[in-house]
Specification:
The chain is an alpha+beta fold. It contains 6 helices and 18 strands. The strands form 4 sheets. Strands 6, 7, 8, 9, 10 and 11 form a 6-stranded antiparallel beta sheet that branches.
């Protein structure tokens, strides 16, 4: 059983009554686990796109995600990030907090070391969409002993559980007209719908899109088996497609 004070969300004591704002953030996929203190914290709004580990000189890159600002500005595995906009980076947590100060589309200067040589690059941050950061499909996969009584399981069931992924990396436009596709992952609903990099998404189910948050809100209510009627622009030509979220079929040995 979870005792009072053992679990916190965004620094506040979590009560099993589950305040509406906490449930809403769980529905939107904007909370993530941080072990071992069972603390949940809100994800950054902006994304750089690297996985790092601590190094005595900063945060060493162990992976650069495809199609992200990090890849576009030339960052590579084993580069050591030492500063963001002149603010020193000492470890991955420090890097996470520093990126968290900025909004999607903000430009940042990154100082880093490559083979001992000091280098600098500039990039524009992307939106950190919740589609690629969902909770485990089965809550029992977390393998946490305090789940035995089902309290957290019940909370996530009420929150709607994990949402299907779109498979898109998106960014706002300067004119607040539509949402730009920066990357499409293979074998995802977006790829199967025929969406491509540089497409401009204009509307979903008749709702006009002004920014990434519009899609974030729509995604919070989708269910497996739903279909989005999407209108988008490609090379100046308006087009339509259906983006389908497939149902996951259950299997059993009986």
């Amino acid at each position: 059983m979870i005792e009072p004070g053992e679990m916190r969300i965004n620094g506040e004591e979590f009560l099993m009554g589950a305040p509406d704002k906490q449930l809403r953030k769980l529905r939107e996929g904007r909370l993530l686990y941080r072990m071992p203190n069972y603390e949940m914290r809100e994800e950054n709004k902006a994304l750089l796109g690297v996985a790092t580990e601590k190094d005595e000189k900063g945060a060493r890159i162990v992976e650069v995600n495809t199609g992200t600002p990090a890849e576009k500005c030339g960052l590579q595995k084993d580069d050591i990030i030492t500063a963001i906009n002149g603010n020193s980076i000492t470890d991955p947590e420090n890097l996470y907090k520093e990126v968290g100060k900025y909004q999607p589309a903000d430009k940042i200067n990154i100082d880093f070391l490559r083979n001992g040589e000091v280098k600098t690059t500039t990039t524009k941050l992307a939106p950190n969409l919740p589609v690629e950061r969902t909770m485990p499909e089965r809550i029992q996969d977390l393998n946490l002993p305090f789940l035995r009584d089902g309290e957290l399981r019940d909370l996530l069931d009420r929150a709607g559980g994990p949402k299907p992924n779109l498979g898109l990396t998106l960014t706002d436009t300067e004119k607040a007209r539509g949402v730009q596709v920066e990357a499409v992952k293979e074998n995802t609903p977006a790829a199967k719908a025929g969406l491509q990099k540089n497409d401009l998404l204009l509307s979903i189910n008749g709702k006009e899109l002004k920014d990434v948050d519009d899609i974030r809100k729509l995604k919070s209510s989708i269910q497996e088996g739903d279909t989005w009627k999407m209108v988008f622009e490609r090379s100046g030509k308006k087009m339509e497609t259906d983006l389908k979220f497939p149902k996951k079929l259950k299997t059993a040995d009986l």
